[in-house]
Amino acid sequence: MKIKTLTINAIVAALYVVVTLVVAPFGFTNIQFRLSEMFNHLIVFDKKYFFGIVIGVLIANFFSPLGWYDLVFGVGQSAISLLIVILLNKYVKNVKVRMVLTTLVFSATMFIIAWELALVASLPFFYTWLTLAISEFIVLAVGAPIMYYINKRIDFKKIIN
Protein backbone atom coordinates (compact mmCIF):
# COMPACT_ATOMS: atom_id res chain seq x y z
CA MET A 1 0.00 0.00 0.00
CA LYS A 2 1.35 3.39 -0.97
CA ILE A 3 2.11 5.93 1.78
CA LYS A 4 -0.51 8.28 0.36
CA THR A 5 -3.21 5.57 0.45
CA LEU A 6 -2.18 4.60 3.97
CA THR A 7 -2.29 8.22 5.12
CA ILE A 8 -5.72 8.85 3.60
CA ASN A 9 -7.05 5.68 5.24
CA ALA A 10 -5.62 6.81 8.59
CA ILE A 11 -7.44 10.12 8.19
CA VAL A 12 -10.69 8.33 7.30
CA ALA A 13 -10.32 6.06 10.35
CA ALA A 14 -9.64 9.05 12.60
CA LEU A 15 -12.63 10.95 11.24
CA TYR A 16 -14.83 7.89 11.72
CA VAL A 17 -13.74 7.59 15.35
CA VAL A 18 -14.14 11.30 16.14
CA VAL A 19 -17.60 11.56 14.57
CA THR A 20 -18.69 8.34 16.32
CA LEU A 21 -17.52 9.53 19.73
CA VAL A 22 -19.15 12.95 19.31
CA VAL A 23 -22.55 11.24 19.04
CA ALA A 24 -21.63 8.23 21.20
CA PRO A 25 -24.87 8.06 23.19
CA PHE A 26 -26.70 7.54 19.89
CA GLY A 27 -24.16 5.22 18.30
CA PHE A 28 -24.18 2.12 20.46
CA THR A 29 -27.85 1.32 21.10
CA ASN A 30 -30.65 -0.48 19.31
CA ILE A 31 -31.41 2.79 17.51
CA GLN A 32 -28.02 3.80 16.16
CA PHE A 33 -27.72 7.23 14.61
CA ARG A 34 -24.00 6.82 14.09
CA LEU A 35 -23.32 9.73 11.76
CA SER A 36 -19.88 8.34 10.96
CA GLU A 37 -21.61 5.60 8.97
CA MET A 38 -21.87 8.08 6.09
CA PHE A 39 -18.16 7.36 5.51
CA ASN A 40 -19.27 3.95 4.22
CA HIS A 41 -20.15 5.77 1.00
CA LEU A 42 -16.43 6.28 0.36
CA ILE A 43 -16.35 2.67 -0.87
CA VAL A 44 -18.49 3.84 -3.80
CA PHE A 45 -15.60 5.92 -5.09
CA ASP A 46 -12.74 3.48 -4.50
CA LYS A 47 -12.33 0.13 -2.77
CA LYS A 48 -9.06 1.38 -1.26
CA TYR A 49 -11.15 3.11 1.44
CA PHE A 50 -12.02 -0.33 2.86
CA PHE A 51 -9.24 -0.36 5.44
CA GLY A 52 -9.82 3.19 6.67
CA ILE A 53 -13.49 2.50 7.28
CA VAL A 54 -12.94 -0.88 8.96
CA ILE A 55 -10.13 0.39 11.18
CA GLY A 56 -12.29 3.39 12.11
CA VAL A 57 -15.10 1.04 13.16
CA LEU A 58 -12.63 -1.12 15.10
CA ILE A 59 -11.17 1.79 17.06
CA ALA A 60 -14.58 3.41 17.67
CA ASN A 61 -15.95 0.11 18.97
CA PHE A 62 -13.23 -0.02 21.64
CA PHE A 63 -15.35 2.65 23.32
CA SER A 64 -18.56 0.62 23.05
CA PRO A 65 -20.37 -0.35 26.24
CA LEU A 66 -20.81 -3.80 24.67
CA GLY A 67 -17.09 -4.54 24.88
CA TRP A 68 -15.51 -7.21 22.74
CA TYR A 69 -18.89 -8.19 21.26
CA ASP A 70 -18.98 -4.91 19.36
CA LEU A 71 -15.44 -5.47 18.15
CA VAL A 72 -16.45 -8.80 16.60
CA PHE A 73 -20.00 -8.08 15.42
CA GLY A 74 -19.58 -4.41 14.52
CA VAL A 75 -16.34 -4.83 12.62
CA GLY A 76 -17.69 -8.02 11.03
CA GLN A 77 -20.87 -6.29 9.85
CA SER A 78 -18.90 -3.41 8.37
CA ALA A 79 -16.37 -5.65 6.62
CA ILE A 80 -19.03 -7.97 5.19
CA SER A 81 -21.15 -5.05 3.99
CA LEU A 82 -18.18 -3.28 2.42
CA LEU A 83 -17.12 -6.46 0.62
CA ILE A 84 -20.64 -6.94 -0.75
CA VAL A 85 -20.67 -3.34 -1.97
CA ILE A 86 -17.22 -3.75 -3.57
CA LEU A 87 -18.55 -6.80 -5.43
CA LEU A 88 -21.68 -4.93 -6.56
CA ASN A 89 -19.59 -1.95 -7.67
CA LYS A 90 -17.98 -4.17 -10.32
CA TYR A 91 -21.36 -4.35 -12.06
CA VAL A 92 -22.78 -0.90 -11.31
CA LYS A 93 -20.99 2.15 -12.65
CA ASN A 94 -23.44 4.93 -11.75
CA VAL A 95 -22.31 6.63 -8.51
CA LYS A 96 -25.84 7.49 -7.37
CA VAL A 97 -27.02 3.91 -7.87
CA ARG A 98 -23.93 2.68 -5.99
CA MET A 99 -24.85 4.96 -3.07
CA VAL A 100 -28.39 3.57 -3.03
CA LEU A 101 -26.98 0.03 -3.03
CA THR A 102 -24.57 0.90 -0.22
CA THR A 103 -27.47 2.26 1.81
CA LEU A 104 -29.57 -0.85 1.21
CA VAL A 105 -26.75 -3.34 1.87
CA PHE A 106 -25.70 -1.73 5.14
CA SER A 107 -29.31 -1.43 6.28
CA ALA A 108 -30.04 -5.08 5.48
CA THR A 109 -26.89 -6.41 7.15
CA MET A 110 -27.81 -4.72 10.41
CA PHE A 111 -29.24 -8.14 11.30
CA ILE A 112 -25.69 -8.90 12.47
CA ILE A 113 -25.85 -6.09 15.03
CA ALA A 114 -29.39 -7.14 15.96
CA TRP A 115 -28.05 -10.63 16.62
CA GLU A 116 -25.34 -9.14 18.83
CA LEU A 117 -27.86 -7.10 20.82
CA ALA A 118 -30.14 -10.12 21.17
CA LEU A 119 -27.21 -12.10 22.63
CA VAL A 120 -25.76 -9.39 24.84
CA ALA A 121 -28.77 -7.33 25.89
CA SER A 122 -31.60 -9.84 25.38
CA LEU A 123 -33.33 -7.48 22.96
CA PRO A 124 -35.90 -8.97 20.58
CA PHE A 125 -34.11 -9.85 17.35
CA PHE A 126 -36.60 -8.81 14.66
CA TYR A 127 -37.71 -5.58 16.31
CA THR A 128 -34.08 -4.64 16.96
CA TRP A 129 -33.16 -5.46 13.36
CA LEU A 130 -36.01 -3.21 12.20
CA THR A 131 -34.95 -0.26 14.37
CA LEU A 132 -31.29 -0.67 13.45
CA ALA A 133 -32.06 -0.98 9.74
CA ILE A 134 -34.26 2.13 9.81
CA SER A 135 -31.69 4.21 11.68
CA GLU A 136 -28.86 2.99 9.41
CA PHE A 137 -30.99 3.73 6.36
CA ILE A 138 -31.70 7.27 7.56
CA VAL A 139 -28.04 8.04 8.28
CA LEU A 140 -26.83 6.64 4.95
CA ALA A 141 -29.69 8.20 2.97
CA VAL A 142 -28.91 11.62 4.48
CA GLY A 143 -25.16 11.02 4.13
CA ALA A 144 -25.30 10.01 0.45
CA PRO A 145 -25.99 13.46 -1.00
CA ILE A 146 -23.51 15.01 1.43
CA MET A 147 -20.76 12.64 0.32
CA TYR A 148 -21.80 13.02 -3.32
CA TYR A 149 -21.43 16.80 -3.21
CA ILE A 150 -18.20 16.67 -1.21
CA ASN A 151 -16.87 14.35 -3.91
CA LYS A 152 -17.77 16.94 -6.56
CA ARG A 153 -15.44 19.38 -4.78
CA ILE A 154 -12.52 17.14 -3.80
CA ASP A 155 -12.78 13.92 -5.90
CA PHE A 156 -12.40 10.99 -3.48
CA LYS A 157 -11.04 8.70 -6.21
CA LYS A 158 -8.26 11.14 -7.09
CA ILE A 159 -7.31 11.69 -3.44
CA ILE A 160 -6.71 8.01 -2.66
CA ASN A 161 -4.83 7.22 -5.89
TrEMBL record:
The keyword Metal-binding does not apply. Keywords: Membrane, Transmembrane, Transmembrane helix. Pfam families: QueT. The chain crosses the membrane at residues 6-28, 49-69, 75-92, 99-120, 126-150. It comes from the Bacteria. PANTHER family: INTEGRAL MEMBRANE PROTEIN, INTEGRAL MEMBRANE PROTEIN-RELATED. This is QueT transporter family protein.
